Every structure is written in structure tokens, then in C-alpha cells.
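Weekly modeling sync, notes
Attendees: AB, CL, MP (scribe)

Item 1: holo prediction request
CL wants a bound-state model with zinc ion before deciding which constructs to order. AB pointed out that an apo prediction alone won't tell us much about the pocket. Agreed to run with the ligand included and paste results into these notes for async review.

Input as submitted:
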Amino acid sequence: MSGHVYPTRDVVPIEQNDQTMVSKSLVTQSMDFTAPRGRLEMGGLLIGHIDQEGTINVVTGFFPEQLKETPGYCRFSGSWVAVAASACEYANSFSTGEGIPELRIVGWIHTHPDLGLFLSSTDVDTYSTLRGMVPDSKFVAVVIDPLRNQDGVFPSERLPNTFFPASGEPDLGEGLRDRYHHLLDRLQEVRTAVGTDRMPSILPGDLRDERLASGDADDSVSALRESVHFLKGELWKTEDRIASLEMEVKTTKRGLLEQIRRLERRVISLEKSKGHGIMAWFTNQ
Ligand SMILES: [Zn+2]
């Protein structure tokens, strides 16, 4: 699953789309997790459900290990689609009450650090491939620019410059909420089995507080905290460099002043001496 970006024009923000609800919390967690990575792109999968009105509800997701990540490209293994589908299947085996929507893969998220919001031609191809993997084509792409703090939900790959901001809050009944918890439990189990490097972030969306209370790690806040420590370290190194440069400047200034004084003394002594002009001294140097 890859996203390759380059600038395009004619960006068209649109109003909220009533066919799609993307959790604002989920997008905020994605921003917090990916912002410390700077200009490296990252992609992940989004999990949700289709409600009785047919609206796509994007509720949770995760970022797997990136096989390739550059300032204009990211790719993760397609095998994560199977991992996500299997976790959904597991969750759907619980809370089998009537009318509770099934959890499924509903979207793809990737970052455009400091590049803005649009779908590149590669994004359009990836979007189309992923949409083809779901039975009813109900699938959305979310692009976030964590360095500009922008996000866009792209309802269709046919409109690569048309998007709206994520602003939703899912309305989860008890049974559905229970399913999401089973899904997140399974994703945590997968992460324990494969390691954090292979599954760097699980995004609980609006279930965050409950998940933290039950002992899940807070990936987004941890990433932000690590980046604060890193930046503090960089700041101290810079301060040390500035202090050393200041010392160097002081030493150079002292040396130059001494040279100037020596030259002044020499000029005065030459002016005083008979038969030797200043110019003669300079010419002889
Ligand atoms: Zn892209």
C-alpha cells in the first residue's frame, strides 16, 4: 500500500459529507503520532462500520511498520489488510445482538508532511486498489499534513482534490462499543506478538480514555513526549555550540585587538623615526 506525492493545483475543500463520518479524535491521534517523524511519510489502515443509514463510520485504525518511507513516499505491506480483516472477524464474533453493525476496514490514512492535502496519481491508484478489496466499495481515504495541522477526508479517488475536514464523533451503542474493544484487544495482542517496531501505533479514537484505563499504551502521547525529549537534547547541543562559538569569537577579538594595538605602536614609532615614512614601512612588509 503506497502513497506517492507531488504538488497539484485546484484544491477544492467541501462541506461535511453525510455519507462519511471520520472521528476527529482518531485524526488528532494520527497527527500527534506522525508529527514527530518530521518529513517522513507514513500510512495506515482505518477500521469502522457502516451504520443503518449506510454512512461510513471511521472509528479506529493503526499504523503498521513502513517498508519504505521518504519525504514523498510511503509503503506498508498488504498483509496488514489481512491482519485487520482477521481482527474485525474476531471482534464481530462477540456482541452478536441484532442490528449491531459489523466492524470492517473502511479506509486508508497517510501523511503528506508539509505538502498539503490532495491525492497524487499514485494515491489514486492505491485508493482504487483498496476500494476494490471491500465488497460494497464503501471506503474513504484520509490525508493528514501533521506539520501544517491539516486533514482531509477524500470521499472518492475520482475527485483527487476534493475533501472535507474530519470532525465526527461516533455514536456507539453498548454492543458496538464492546465490539470495538474486542477489536482493539486483538490488535494489542497482535502487537505483543510482532513487536512495537512492526506495529508502531494503534489508534483508539474516541475509545482512548477507556483503553488507557484498561492499560493500553498511549502511542500518540508517547511519540510526542519522545520528540520533546529529542528536541530538548538538540536545543542543549545547540546552546553548547553557541557557547563554544562565543568563546571562539572572544578569543579572536582579543587577538585582533592585540594585533591592532601592536600595529598602532609600530606606526607611531615609525612616524617618530626620521628618514622612514609610514608608506615605506608598509612597502617593506
Ligand atoms: Zn499521498
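Recorded for review: Confidence is low (pLDDT under 50) at residues 5-9.
Action items: CL to compare against the apo run; MP to circulate these notes.
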